[in-house]
Amino acid sequence: MTSDxxxxxxxxxxxxRRAELDPAAVGLPDGGQRRVAGLRREEVAVLAAISTDYYxxxxxxxxxxxxxxxxxxxxxxRLDDDQRAYLxxxxxxxxxxxTAARRRPRPKTQVQWQHMIDDMAHxxxxxxxPRTEVVAWNAMxxxxxxxxxxxxxxxRYYIRLLITDPAMKELYADWEGVxxxxxxxxxxxxxxxxxxxxxxxxxxxxxxxxxxxxxWWAAHDVAVRDTGTKHLRHPVVGDLHxxxxxxxxxxxxxxxxxxxxxxxSTPTHDSLRMLASWAADPSHLRSGSSA
Length: 291
Description:
Helix content is 44%, strand content 11%. By secondary structure, it is of the alpha+beta class. It folds into two domains: 5-96, Orthogonal Bundle (434 Repressor (Amino-terminal Domain)), CATH 1.10.260.40; 111-279, 2-Layer Sandwich (Beta-Lactamase), CATH 3.30.450. Strand 4 and strand 5 (256-261) form a beta hairpin. Helix 11 crosses helix 12 (211-218).
């Protein structure tokens, strides 16, 4: 059996997606009690017009699917746009990719990032990497979430903070939804580097520490980190309903600048101004420079 990590992840992703499908939803009879949830391998194969053996080898990570098979599987498994993109990323020329575990360096902050986000006096902002490593932040980002400067660099992962810091469960009104989305985004944004040893160490640590993380990571959900809304219950300024946007840093496409904003003349917009005044007091919060 191949050791290609892309093919292994592809097989696990296919298994997770077929386990979610209701047979009746794809026009199949229930067929009585099933040993496993969702569709059987042979049912997916029939619907995709491929042999059961071929599909089984795909799930076992033994073969590389053709573009036409990928399209059929995406249709049968009812994949959304993000899931289709992830499927294609895992399947794109994996036979030419190195199979040895790789160490993608942790991104380092650059003065241009820091100057830009520091100029956002009323806008919380972070620079975040594919593993959710927080590599830069401004004073408002620290005031909104936490003082990242107090967290050792090797532990400064947003997903780790969500899982291990009880204050995050209080901060996010929908902590579970936020955390599951962050996990799905982390998987999506690491699709092209499944052999990353730092990601494996992070996933291993959190899987041991938290049953929820282990379950949600095993679900193989994926999502692009792009834009959305979040409801925060901030200990200083109260309820905040924020829009967030993640923009790719052109000089390093692995990095994204995430900013939180609110529409003018709304209570949240006013609360951000109050938070900025609070954060300006050095007794409340250290400078937002990163390590």
